[in-house]
Automatic annotation (TrEMBL):
InterPro entries membership: Peptidase_M32_Taq
Short name of any one Pfam family annotated for the protein: Peptidase_M32
Residues annotated as catalytic: E264
Keywords: Carboxypeptidase, Hydrolase, Metal-binding, Metalloprotease, Protease, Zinc
Organism: Xanthobacter tagetidis
Family annotation (CDD domains): M32_Taq
Name of this chain's protein: Metal-dependent carboxypeptidase
EC identifiers of the protein: 3.4.17.19
Cross-referenced PANTHER family: CARBOXYPEPTIDASE 1, METAL-DEPENDENT CARBOXYPEPTIDASE
Reactions the enzyme catalyzes: Release of a C-terminal amino acid with broad specificity, except for -Pro
One GO MF term attached to the UniProt entry: metallocarboxypeptidase activity
Length: 500
């Protein structure tokens, strides 16, 4: 198998470069002194150019063709060739001048966005954002012509390989028809019972960190192959077998950091569970952004905001912060951790209202990439969508269409993966509980081994062997279905549930 062996060796070397980029990027976001920023940027830029050059090397096409013609390859090797071809096709589609123009436009727009957001000044950002949009549309067109996709689906494909907007439209339309009425029902049910008791701080950072590390160990994080640090924006990064997660602390609110740690630990468990025999190959990578997000949301939302987990965690929270009284009882903590309220800011949204924020952004970015709406109309369209989906209207663009960095930074096609991930998390957790009925009871004892074992077998160890729909169908018995997510919301937040 000379062609396949050469192909695999080539991409193992590319993975080594990617690992170096991952650790340098993590260091840039956590520990690097500010004075090193310019030098670090040059180093990262060079490594990225080298990595891109390896992926796009002209010999890769010949090696792929040779490997595809070889006999005796197993399922993993065939899937690896498929993933390499997918990666190579996308990476070689774009002319270098378009990549460079987009990079420069994004750099200018990101800088301008910070000022425009602070001043709620969309007109000031408009010309620069229009340039980014135009270039992203061109990128979508070029990739789409190579892949046989619409421009939006070609951009979506970067984050969700095989994902199609027609399928997302159906899933999100189903949710959008359900969410406004359900949100109102939940809010009315909350209003009929006493509000949860607040927890009185301050909560020292050292105690928060110790609690987070304890809970990471509980859920199964391998500290021999990862670590926890602090950054401005929490993330999961690093390298193969060296997973770096970060959080940020607020001494007035420990729940935000703790749930952030649980969220990023879900990502990290996926990274630590990828198939070791293929860990340096494209087929050994995580399947898609929606599957990756499902692992973080499964751990944070499905497991760690459950009554079972909070019954286990409550005495440990009390011990960590010297808490006492009814506010620190598990039932009150559960009410705090599942509180629902309408709000303008996506990143602060609860489990019920969050999908509405994502659906709005998805519909708008699809219309903009499809040239179905002038960019100048974005603020008005945003506000109308917020009224329709959440029943509130932003007072200004700072808390409206300027709040996210995704579009100024060129991240078009990314937004839908958040809610696809939430839906996938619900479906996987439901299947895990049906397959292993002792999972909820084990979580109540602080034993995540049964849940993690099921995830390892059905998701983590599969890497990118299967397409996303095939992975989910094999694990749960069906492709992605909005009804499972809706059933989860009804169980946790519906009128009967909120009466407890």
């Amino acid at each position: 198998m000379p062609a396949y062996a050469d192909l695999a060796a080539h991409f193992a070397r590319a993975a080594a470069l990617a690992n170096s980029i991952g650790i340098l990027q993590w260091d840039s976001d956590t520990m690097m002194p500010k004075g090193a920023a310019e030098t670090r940027a040059e180093s990262l830029a060079l490594l990225r150019v080298l990595h891109h050059g390896m992926v796009c090397d002209p010999k890769v096409g010949d090696l792929i063709a040779g490997a595809e013609a070889e006999s005796g390859l197993g399922d993993w090797e065939r899937a690896n060739i498929r993933e390499i071809r997918r990666l190579w096709t996308v990476q070689t589609a774009l002319p270098a001048d378009l990549v460079e123009a987009s990079s420069r436009a994004v750099s200018r727009c990101e800088m301008a966005w910070r000022k425009a957001r602070a001043e709620a000044d969309f007109p000031a950002l408009l010309p620069l954002l229009a340039e980014v949009l135009s270039l992203q549309r061109q990128i979508g067109i070029v990739k789409g012509e190579k892949l046989g996709l619409s421009p939006y689906d070609a951009l979506l494909n970067d984050y969700e390989p095989g994902g199609r907007s027609a399928r997302i439209d159906a899933l999100f339309d189903d949710l959008a028809a359900f969410l406004p009425g359900f949100t109102q029902e939940v809010l009315e049910a909350q209003a009929r019972r006493p509000a949860p008791l607040p927890l009185q701080g301050p909560f020292p950072v050292a105690a928060q960190r110790a609690l987070g590390l304890e809970m990471m160990q509980v859920v199964g994080f391998d500290f021999e192959r990862g670590r926890l640090d602090v950054s401005t924006h929490p993330f999961c990064g690093g390298a193969d077998n060296d997973v770096r997660i970060t959080t940020r602390y607020d001494e007035a609110d420990f729940a935000r950091a703790l749930m952030g740690v649980m969220h990023e630990t879900g990502h990290a468990l996926y990274e630590q569970g990828r198939p070791q025999a293929m860990v340096h190959q494209p087929v050994g990578q995580a399947r898609s952004m929606s599957v990756h997000e499902s692992q973080s949301l499964l751990m944070e939302m499905q497991a760690c905001r459950s009554r079972e987990f909070l019954a286990f965690a409550a005495p440990r929270m009390r011990a960590a912060f010297g808490g006492a009284g009814p506010a620190w009882e598990a039932d009150n903590l559960y009410k705090l951790y599942t509180r629902v309220e309408r709000g303008f800011i996506r990143v602060d949204a609860d489990e019920v209202t969050y999908p509405a924020h994502v659906i709005l952004r998805y519909r708008l970015e699809k219309a903009l990439i499809g040239d179905e709406m002038p960019l100048a109309e974005l603020p008005a369209a945003w506000n109308a969508g917020m009224r329709d989906l959440l029943g509130i209207t932003p007072p200004d663009d700072r808390v409206g269409c300027l709040q996210d960095i995704h579009w100024p930074s060129g991240g078009w096609g990314y937004f839908p993966t958040y809610t696809l991930g939430a839906m996938t998390a619900a479906q996987l957790f439901d299947a895990a509980r049906r397959a292993v009925p002792e999972i909820p009871g084990a979580i109540a004892r602080g034993d995540f081994a049964p849940l993690l074992a099921w995830l390892r077998e059905n998701v983590h160890s599969q890497g990118s062997l299967l397409e996303t729909d095939d992975l989910l169908t094999r694990a749960t018995g069906r492709p992605l279905d909005a009804s499972v997510f809706k059933a989860h919301l009804l169980r946790r937040y519906g009128s009967e549930a909120t009466a407890h």
